[in-house]
Design a protein that fits this description.
By secondary structure, the protein is α+β, with helices and mostly antiparallel strands. The protein has helices at about 30-45, 50-60, 65-75, 75-99; strands at about 10-15, 25-30. It has a domain at about 30-99: Arc Repressor Mutant, subunit A (Orthogonal Bundle), CATH 1.10.10.
Length: about 100
């Protein structure tokens, strides 16, 4: 899937207790787009998403707004809404069947 990425990096910092009096910071960097892509690929197989649904869902999982998705894909916001409704319906149906 050839999508433009915004290049968002999530930075997490936490204290890591070391040996004796040594205290360190643990810094973790996460590429949010790659994380969203991995999650979308798993969901795509699970709930049978079409290529367009997967493309739009990936951007949504990467915290893009409908307007940002429309701008990036050169489509209207209403055109973004249709596959999103379908994705939510498929996910709800899948979760309903699992319960």
């Amino acid at each position: 899937m050839a999508l433009e990425t915004a290049g968002c990096i999530r930075v997490r910092v936490q204290w890591a207790l070391g040996d004796g009096a040594k205290t360190r910071l643990l810094v973790t960097l996460e590429d949010t787009f790659l994380t969203a892509e991995r999650q979308m690929q798993a969901e795509r197989k699970k709930v049978s998403l079409t290529p367009r649904e997967a493309e739009v869902w990936l951007l949504r999982r990467a915290t893009c707004t409908y307007r940002a998705i429309a701008s990036q894909r050169h489509i209207t916001v209403d055109t973004v809404k249709k596959p999103m409704k379908s994705v939510y319906a498929k996910r709800n149906t899948f979760h309903w069947r699992e319960e």
